[in-house]
TrEMBL record:
<dbReference type="InterPro" id="IPR002401">
    <property type="entry name" value="Cyt_P450_E_grp-I"/>
</dbReference>
<keyword id="KW-0479">Metal-binding</keyword>
<dbReference type="GO" id="GO:0005506">
    <property type="term" value="F:iron ion binding"/>
</dbReference>
<keyword id="KW-0812">Transmembrane</keyword>
<keyword id="KW-0732">Signal</keyword>
<keyword id="KW-0503">Monooxygenase</keyword>
<dbReference type="GO" id="GO:0016125">
    <property type="term" value="P:sterol metabolic process"/>
</dbReference>
<comment type="similarity">
    <text>Belongs to the cytochrome P450 family.</text>
</comment>
<dbReference type="InterPro" id="IPR036396">
    <property type="entry name" value="Cyt_P450_sf"/>
</dbReference>
<dbReference type="GO" id="GO:0020037">
    <property type="term" value="F:heme binding"/>
</dbReference>
<keyword id="KW-1133">Transmembrane helix</keyword>
<protein>
    <submittedName>
        <fullName>Beta-amyrin 28-monooxygenase-like</fullName>
    </submittedName>
</protein>
<dbReference type="InterPro" id="IPR017972">
    <property type="entry name" value="Cyt_P450_CS"/>
</dbReference>
<keyword id="KW-0472">Membrane</keyword>
<dbReference type="GO" id="GO:0016705">
    <property type="term" value="F:oxidoreductase activity, acting on paired donors, with incorporation or reduction of molecular oxygen"/>
</dbReference>
<feature type="signal peptide">
    <location>
        <begin position="1"/>
        <end position="22"/>
    </location>
</feature>
<keyword id="KW-0349">Heme</keyword>
Length: 477
């Protein structure tokens, strides 16, 4: 085993040990017809291999190896200190997405719920439905039409300040800064750079403890993460108070951002969201929508540098749109609808390297899947990476081919970068706006090349280039 794998593996062992000991003390129900598979080593289960595959850049290997070993559409394992069934392919995705709230419910490691508090991702059933509905009214296409111009403005400012005049930059960290700035501006109308920078510093610490053992003792990532979350909440509490006053004075409008929307609008019964939950939901949106987008943007840059014939067509499409605009005119919703080829390319980037490798559910009851019993409380995993690499649904799966998305595109449940069913990504349409607007400005402003064409992508837990993807830059014209 390489040293780079041993260190996180050892850390994981330390993290899981107390949790596993607690679990071993629990009596185990006996179930005669469990899916084939192995719970692996005592205490750590198969977590080390799960982790090794992610750090090696191919999380799907963990699943593929077991699918071929057991020759079954479902297998059992134990990762993250939990007994787990992994359901394979479009059929597994369909089962989990369409049984939300019936046989299964969204599950995140307990650290997530403890840090986020009561908000969309820590709720299930009707409560989650109600929160999602309130948030969706800001993220639906009608509402997003109003913000495309702002996204364009913020993107242009970012490129002018951080990219123009540079010969070289580290793409990943720069893009992270951009997606964070954009989220602060659009979700909460924060324009003060010092506040953005303070929030970004806290957020950086916060992220390290989100998927971790929830040990709230000094020295642990979780402890630091909790402190950082408290600091973020303190800043946001001040902001909420300020927005309330502005709303009363009518110097802010209920539709200017998600925060004012949640302050001013109730749920379907007119009940207002408690202030603490508004703040938790803002924290959650920053968490869910920031790294996913920066990771996707960095992958787009990497793939386009490796595929000159694809880049050429993206350039042609984006230049035509730029040429149709008067000088200084911002991108509008209608322009995004013309970026069909570019969106197919982005979709293929997300198929080749899924920004979110998959996620988890919990069994609400004992149920049968493909003839096997899945006991209540077991965790379930669906995998976007594995589904996207399945040659039965994506012929020549390892080859980049954006034409897969022409016409009706991939078969249902075979392309799932944003999940599916009631817990599908809330920010899908927002991400489309963010990614296309960035691509438009990047393409029209710059040419770039990779400093290290062999730079590896690993999952941690999102795909990231190990060296941060340094690129050489030149203005396009
Ligand atoms: C390319 C970018 C993105 C990708 C690939 C992505 C992917 C995903 C996936 C796979 C899920 C479903 C998890 C599950 O089924 O358990 C999800 C959920 C979610 N995403 Fe995204 N996401 C992206 C961007 C965003 C953005 C920009 C936002 C915020 C505006 C966002 C907010 C959320 C939220 C709040 C959820 C939880 C929904 C729920 O629990 O009902 N995402 N995302």
């Amino acid at each position: 085993m390489e040293a780079s794998t041993l260190v996180p593996a050892f850390a994981l062992l330390l993290l899981l040990l107390p949790l596993a000991v607690i679990k071993l003390l629990k009596p185990k129900a006996s179930h005669p017809n469990l899916p084939p598979g192995s719970f692996g080593w005592p205490v750590i289960g198969e977590s080390l291999e799960f982790l090794r595959c992610q750090r090696g850049g191919c999380p799907e290997k963990f699943i593929r190896d077991r699918m071929s070993k057991y020759n079954s559409p479902v297998f059992r394992t134990s990762v993250l200190g939990e007994p787990m069934a992994v359901l394979y392919g479009p059929a597994g995705n369909k089962f989990l997405f369409s049984n939300e709230g019936k046989k299964v419910a969204l599950w995140w490691p307990s650290s997530v719920g403890k840090l986020m508090g009561r908000c969309l991702v820590s709720k299930v059933g009707d409560e989650a439905r109600s929160d999602k509905k309130m948030l969706m009214s800001f993220f639906n296409p009608e509402a997003l039409k109003r913000i495309v111009g702002v996204v364009d403005e913020v993107t242009k400012d970012h490129l002018r300040i951080h990219w123009e005049g540079k010969d070289q930059l580290e793409a990943y960290s720069t893009l992270k800064q951009h997606t964070f700035d954009l989220a602060c501006r659009l979700f909460m109308s924060i324009t003060d750079p010092q506040l953005v920078s303070r929030l970004a510093d806290h957020f950086h610490v916060f992220l390290r403890g989100v998927i971790d053992l929830p040990l709230n003792v000094p020295g642990t990532n979780f402890y630091r993460s909790k402190k950082a979350a408290d600091s973020i909440r303190k800043e946001l509490r001040v902001l909420v108070k300020q927005r309330r006053v502005e709303l009363e004075k009518k110097t802010a409008s209920p539709s200017q951002d998600i925060m004012t929307h949640l302050i001013a609008n109730g749920d379907e019964n007119g009940k207002l969201m408690p202030e603490a939950e508004i703040i938790n939901n803002m924290l959650n949106l920053l968490f869910a929508g920031h790294d996913t987008s920066s990771s996707t943007l960095v992958l787009i840059i990497k793939y386009l540098s490796e595929l000159p014939y694809v880049l050429e067509k993206v350039v042609a499409e984006q230049r035509e749109i730029a040429a149709s605009k008067a000088g200084g005119e911002l991108i509008q919703w209608g322009d995004l609808q013309k970026m069909r080829y570019s969106w197919n390319v982005i979709s293929e980037v997300m198929r080749m390297t899924a920004p979110v490798y998959g996620s988890f559910r919990e069994a609400l009851v004992d149920f049968t899947y493909e003839g096997y019993t899945i006991p209540k409380d077991w965790k379930l995993h669906w995998s976007a990476c594995t589904t996207h690499g399945d040659p039965d649904y994506h012929p020549r799966a390892p080859t980049f081919d954006e034409s897969r998305f022409e016409g009706s595109g991939p078969a249902p449940y075979s392309y799932v970068p944003f999940g599916g069913g009631p817990r599908m990504c809330l920010g899908l349409e927002f991400a489309r706006v963010e990614l296309l607007v960035f691509l438009h400005n990047l393409i029209n402003g710059f040419r770039w090349s990779l400093v290290n064409p062999d730079e590896k992508i690993i999952y941690d837990p999102m795909p990231i280039p190990v060296e941060g993807l340094p690129i050489r830059l030149r203005p396009r014209d």
